[in-house]
Here is the input.
Amino acid sequence: MNNLIIVGNGFDLAHGLKTKYSDFILWYLNRIFKELSTKKQYEDELLEMHLNSYFDYSEIKTIFDFHNRIKAYKITISYKYSLLKNLIIYYKNFNWIDIENFYYRHLIELYKKIEKKGLESDPQIDKDLFNLNKCFEIIKTFLIGYLTFIDNNNNGKNNDINTHISRITNSSGKDGKTLLLNFNYTSTPEIYIDNANFIWYDVNYIHGKLNDNLNPIIFGYGDEIDIYYEKIERLNNNEFLKNFKSFGYFKTSNYQKLSRFIESPYRVHIMGHSCGLSDRILLNSIFENIRCHSIKIYFYQKGLNETDYIEKTQEISRHFKPEGKARMREIIVPLPECAPLTSCITNI
Here is the structure.
């Protein structure tokens, strides 16, 4: 039987890569402060800062460090787009951020304004929408630069993950295949390809690959089941749909290759993927497929007696329609038969 390994950001984190969006935001702010300490001013496509007093640069490790230094050194900051400003404020208040979900929230708010006015368009809302998408595109460019640097500093194979993948590929049997569906942009899965024990092991970069013009990055939102998506689509305004993942899938044959793979019976193995709603359409097509025989979770070991297994099952359940919930309970592998992604207890 075929095996489908779904890889998310936790996979990269288990390899020591700082690929959280929060890591990216801190890298971006440190980059600004470092230049600010020598040039006394900083400006890019997203913001502008001016230093009004002496500033001795040292690395900021939390978003609170950033805000404290802004205040202590009387730094003037001017955001060019409300999306970035709100991202940083939200991160300060909740110490967590998912840029793609945050972007979609802003998109819905703009739609609600149009709905409230009873119009299909409005000049100010059109301007706000254009700026939202422009800011999102700029952030994407900075993110690609950051991840490229991170991807070049991979620590090598994780022994636990190496064992997991080896067992999965060997369980496929003589005629079975193993496809690793990589939701990340980094090339981490490729470090396992040279293992002679892996039979029919292949990687599908479903959301694109860093610095690959033939497989461009898909960065956006993918929940077309959401109640607002159909309303937004009826507006007949393509700017609202600019960053929906479904349209990015048309740029390559990755989605079609996945569809052909799941035409045969398969087992699903989840490694470090949050199973969040930003990939809802794609995950729904995998999980609810009648050919999906099981869903095994390689959970995050939070502590000696604490895992994220239950949270993962809750996220997975959101990808099943009401009529599919009974089958969901049959195919999700019980906790005792699952395993931690890595035995090390790390902050992933």
User: Anything to note?
Assistant: The first helix runs from residue 9 to 13. The CA atoms of residues 2 and 167 lie 13 Å apart. The two ends are 31 Å apart (CA to CA).
